[in-house]
Amino acid sequence: MKIRSIIFYTALMMSANLASANDKQKLLITGSSTVSPVIQEIARVYEQQQSKVLVDVQTGGSSKGVMDTRSGLSDIGMVSRALKQSEQDLKSYTLGFDGISLITHSSNSLSNLTKKQIIDIYTGKINNWKMLGGPEEEIVVISKAAGRSTLELFLAYLGIKHSKIKADIVIGDNEQGIKAVESNKFAIGYVSIGAAKYRAENGAPIKLISADGHIPSLENVRKRTYPMTRELNLVTSGNETDSANKFIKFSLHQSSLIEAFNFVPAE
């Protein structure tokens, strides 16, 4: 009899919790893996203040954020770049600014690469660290998958087409790129400055490399003097719900959280 009572009570509680979850307003936010970590933290704080709202944050790249928002699959898209001319049907809200930095293992003695050297590395013309004054070891080239805004901005900076890239490893999000460099002393990649700084400050054996003498720092991103600086945006279709509007308005005023993730707030 006691066991039956426990089973009944457990089932009743599960049903009540499910009903409570179903009663909540749900917001689906998809897109950029660069923007995702800070939005997840903002969402956590927001849910604490708005108990009737449930925010689901999913990654997949900026292109996915645009496509999902256009199709109505997501309420809000995350895009780590300015909207393209072909995307002006969407409405964007700038959270802050970030940059893209080359990264190597912390044991690498290099601190700067010229644009030509970067192009030659990523097109296969320079394939050994000895050609750059380093050890006689092959360079392991890490690049981003198609549809990632980090790749698009990197290619735009170099002035080359994606088809010219000769990568040994193709990754999706920043964390994958950082882990790939952590585990290979002879690798080179490019990721968000914010993500790289955060992981380096927390013990990851990586270092940020200057591009053509431009230091990948938050100060240079703030001054817009770093060449691979980009916007971090939330985007909507223009027909967003009141719930989505409230979350966006809340997010735009979270400067301290945005700074905590090594991004430069737009405010």
TrEMBL record:
<keyword id="KW-0732">Signal</keyword>
<feature type="signal peptide">
    <location>
        <begin position="1"/>
        <end position="21"/>
    </location>
</feature>
<protein>
    <recommendedName>
        <fullName>PBP domain-containing protein</fullName>
    </recommendedName>
</protein>
<dbReference type="InterPro" id="IPR024370">
    <property type="entry name" value="PBP_domain"/>
</dbReference>
<dbReference type="Pfam" id="PF12849">
    <property type="entry name" value="PBP_like_2"/>
</dbReference>
<dbReference type="InterPro" id="IPR050811">
    <property type="entry name" value="Phosphate_ABC_transporter"/>
</dbReference>
<feature type="domain" description="PBP">
    <location>
        <begin position="20"/>
        <end position="252"/>
    </location>
</feature>
